[in-house]
């Protein structure tokens, strides 16, 4: 309970615009970047000199967000920091509808035509508590589709670019950041999720439960990607010591709970829920700080933090539930293999769209 309580009342962030180093030369994708946490994150990265791709469904909304970002001046603390690049970066709209798997591959093709590297993918976009019965373009429950299936396929198709970038980058600096929720800690069933609840004929009637399953699924996918892409393999033994920290060949994948925030993610929530939780909600920018830590903190590394869980406003989860950490491991590792089972479930449903 203390761990959950600390996510409602977190300590101050340690990585903000005040001490964010220049991101010049780095390429980022932020899904859902036109509003909320994504908008704030794009703003921070752009004003730090990064090359940002704002991925989303609506071009008018994205272009309005881009105009707003470009018109903003960095905060005084940011502009006075000696670490900040005095010149902003660039920001470009990338069309992407995560609830329609047919749009994923074209979005990746558009990106890879323009860029040869990708330093960090922020899987930020999501949907919460839509009207009961809401489905994706392919007929999947909307929250699982938007929060898991779409990001899973998007990440897998971008993985070759991420791995190539890791080859020439400092170890652990190329990352994929997934988005979970405090609900995982507080209300996930033993083992994280019940696979039978993903079947179309057995979907929970509670949209809160479907949302919970999708957010638990995000942690599972983060851990599975860490297993898939986080191992640093060398083709031959090095005769000379590595220089500049560039062991490469690995992508650091982890998830984060951005925090309890005032964003349009809650637009479908019952009004009473919004009223009761309002005193516990923070501005969206605080969630962007959580993402900054997960994506850019040098405290995190490939050897120790693949599949890790970051909590507000940028710190490692102090005590994840044992049943959930066991679900991340396969049976041969002393776990239950539930994360692998969920990943395989996702793969079957996206395979035809690769």
Rg calculated over all Cα atoms = 19 Å
Helix and strand composition category: alpha/beta
Number of helical runs? Answer: 13
The strands making up the biggest β-sheet line up spatially as 3-2-1-4-5-6-7-8
As a percent range, the share of helical residues equals: 40-55%
The profile of the biggest β sheet is: 8 strands, mixed
Strand content: 5-15%
- What is the terminal separation in angstroms? 42 Å
Low-confidence stretches: 76-82, 234-248
Please trace the helix and strand order, writing H or E for each element: HEHEHHEHEHEHHEHHHEEHH
Average predicted confidence as pLDDT: 90
Total beta strands = 8
Shape, principal axes of CA atoms: globular
Give the SSE layout:
Blueprint: H1 2-8, E1 27-31, H2 36-47, E2 51-56, H3 59-71, H4 76-79, E3 90-95, H5 104-114, E4 120-122, H6 142-167, E5 175-179, H7 182-187, H8 207-229, E6 252-256, H9 271-277, H10 284-296, H11 302-305, E7 309-311, E8 315-316, H12 322-328, H13 338-350
Parallel strand pairs: 1-2, 1-4, 2-3, 4-5, 5-6, 6-7
Antiparallel strand pairs: 7-8
């Amino acid at each position: 309970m203390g761990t959950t309580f600390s996510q409602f009342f977190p300590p101050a962030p340690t990585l903000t615009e005040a001490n964010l180093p220049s991101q010049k030369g780095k390429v980022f994708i932020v899904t859902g970047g036109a509003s909320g946490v994504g908008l704030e994150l794009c703003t921070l990265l752009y004003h730090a000199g990064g090359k940002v791709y704002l991925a989303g469904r609506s071009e008018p909304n994205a272009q309005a967000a881009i105009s707003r970002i470009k018109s903003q001046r960095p905060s005084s603390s940011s502009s006075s920091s000696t670490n900040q690049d005095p010149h902003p970066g660039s920001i470009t709209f990338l069309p992407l509808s995560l609830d329609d798997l047919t749009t994923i591959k074209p979005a990746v093709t558009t990106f890879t035509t323009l860029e040869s590297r990708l330093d960090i993918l922020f899987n930020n976009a999501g949907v919460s508590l839509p009207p009961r019965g809401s489905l994706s373009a392919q007929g999947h429950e909307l929250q699982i589709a938007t929060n898991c299936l779409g990001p899973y396929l998007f990440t897998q198709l971008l993985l070759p670019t991420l791995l190539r970038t890791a080859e020439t980058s400092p170890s652990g600096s190329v990352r994929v950041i997934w988005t979970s929720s405090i609900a995982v800690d507080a209300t996930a069933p033993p083992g994280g999720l019940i696979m039978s609840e993903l079947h179309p004929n057995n979907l929970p009637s509670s949209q809160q439960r479907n949302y919970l399953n999708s957010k638990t699924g995000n942690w599972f996918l983060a851990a599975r990607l860490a297993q898939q892409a986080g191992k640093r393999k060398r083709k031959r033994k090095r005769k000379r010591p590595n220089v500049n920290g560039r062991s490469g060949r690995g992508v650091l994948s982890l998830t984060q709970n951005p925090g309890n925030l005032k964003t349009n993610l809650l637009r479908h929530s019952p009004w009473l829920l919004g009223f009761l939780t309002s005193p516990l909600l923070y501005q969206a920018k605080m969630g962007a700080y959580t993402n900054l830590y997960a994506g850019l903190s040098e405290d995190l590394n490939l050897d120790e933090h693949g599949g890790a869980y970051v909590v507000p406003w940028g710190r490692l989860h102090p005590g994840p539930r044992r049943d959930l950490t066991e679900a991340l491991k396969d049976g041969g590792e002393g776990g239950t293999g539930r994360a692998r089972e969920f990943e395989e479930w996702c793969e079957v449903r996206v395979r035809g769209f690769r």
